[in-house]
Amino acid sequence: MFFNQNLGLETIYKEYKSFNFFCNTLLISNEDAIKLVETKEWLFNDDIINTIECMINIFLPKYACAFLSNNDKDAELYFGIDDNGIIHGIPYQGELDKNLIIEKYKKCFYDKIKCTDNIFNYIDIDIIKLDYDYHKKLDDTHYLYKKFINEKIIFNLNYNKYILKKKKWNKLLARYNTKFTDLVNNYDTRLELINYIEIKDPKNCTIKLLKSNYVMLNYKTIDIQIYKLDKNNIFYWLATWKDTMLQFLKSIKPTFYYKIPCMCYPLNIILAVHPMIPYWMHNNTELNLFIIKFTFKRTYSLDIQYKNIYNNWFRCYRTIANGEPCCQRL
Questions:
Q1: 76 & 190 share domain
Q2: Range with the lowest mean pLDDT among 45-54, 69-78, 158-167, 169-178?
Q3: Burial 205-242 (b: 16+ CB within 10 A, else e)
Q4: Banded model confidence at residue 282, pLDDT cuts 50, 70, 90
Q5: b/e per residue 38-53 (b: at least 16 CB within 10 A)
Q6: How many domains does the chain have?
Q7: Which residue in 18, 93, 150, 318 has the fewest CB atoms around it within 10 Å?
């Protein structure tokens, strides 16, 4: 088997699981991720083992239960192959210890499997080392990281434009979202208020008041409540105009929608594992690729239950639903 080989789609007797760090906690910062994508340095052997253990705990009990409940031929579960059957593998510096994997899956089964027989008699494990073509040329900079850099430039340009628009909008908001006394006594907003009333009610007596030397002094909130429904009172027009302007400003509030695609973030490039594999393989000595194959032997008589992540016990079986192979609970 070799890197990027296509094994074909999943079947009722064959299941693939991609290998990535998303199911495991990888303790690196965004800054560390940027550095690791740039240098292609390999520091993840311990994380590989922890992730394999995590995948065993999540997937193996369920698929062991499904494949061994009642299958008429051997079935297989692979770690390191995506749903389309493309082999990406599991990177590891040195040799992946089969005995360690067996130890971890047995530890998992003691807690998560109930079986009428010794289930370990029906499961084989193979650690398969993949061939890798080192002749394929790679750019010095990861292709997704290049995209991240370009997207970040575009992001910053758009974000700076947004900040300028937001500052102008905040200034407008402050202009209208203020006390009635400020709106009336400020020359510019007073003119706007007069124009507003002239459009809505040209003969209203409030216009004459505002065109005089009238200065609004401090007022009580109760005055607004009493007079804001009276069209011949200044408080009616102040409340109506102010609400209109604030509603308009709300409708034109600048928003920022531009997002960098998630797959381009250096941390996600690391977490996904397979995009980094060629760069790791070309820049780290003794780094190998493996897939883990679990073979479930043909049997008709086992009664098996597995414990899910919520500590509930279930039986399941392998079948085809909506044209896709899957495991169904009994």
A1: no
A2: 69-78
A3: ebbebbeeeeebeeeeeeeeeebeeeeebbbbbbbbbb
A4: very high
A5: eebebebeebbbbbbb
A6: 2
A7: 150
Give the Cα separation of 282 and 136 in Å (integer). 10
- Among 123, 108, 113, smallest CA distance to 314 is for 113
Give the CA count within 13 Å in the CB-facing half-sphere of 65: 25
Question: Quick one: tokens of 233?
Answer: 């009172």
For the cut 90, the answer to whether the pLDDT of residue 23 exceeds it is no
Q: Is 260 a domain residue?
A: no
Residue-range definition of the domain harbouring residue 52: 14-140+266-329
Longest dimension (CA), the chain: 100
Prediction pTM value = 0.79
Reference 304, options 51, 70, 11; nearest CA is 70
Residues 100 and 194 in one domain: no
Average pLDDT, the chain: 93
Q: How large is the angle between the packed helices 234-251 and 187-200, nearest 10 degrees?
A: 100
Question: Please, which residues bridge with residue 115 across strands?
Answer: 304
From residue 9, alpha-carbon distances to 65, 82, 226 in Å are 21, 9, 75
In this prediction, residues 75-93 reach a mean pLDDT of 97
Is it the case that residue 226 has pLDDT exceeding 80? Answer: no
Burial level of 166, CB count in 10 A (0-12/13-18/19+)?
A: middle
A 10 A CB-CB count for 188 gives: 9
Nearest to 81 by CA among 271, 281, 290: 290
Q: Which tokens sit at 84?
A: 């389309």
Question: For residue 280, which phi and psi values (nearest 5 degrees)?
Answer: -65, -45
What is the model's pLDDT at position 103? 95
| Same domain, yes or no: 70 and 216 | no
Residue 227 lies in a domain: yes
pLDDT value of residue 290: 98
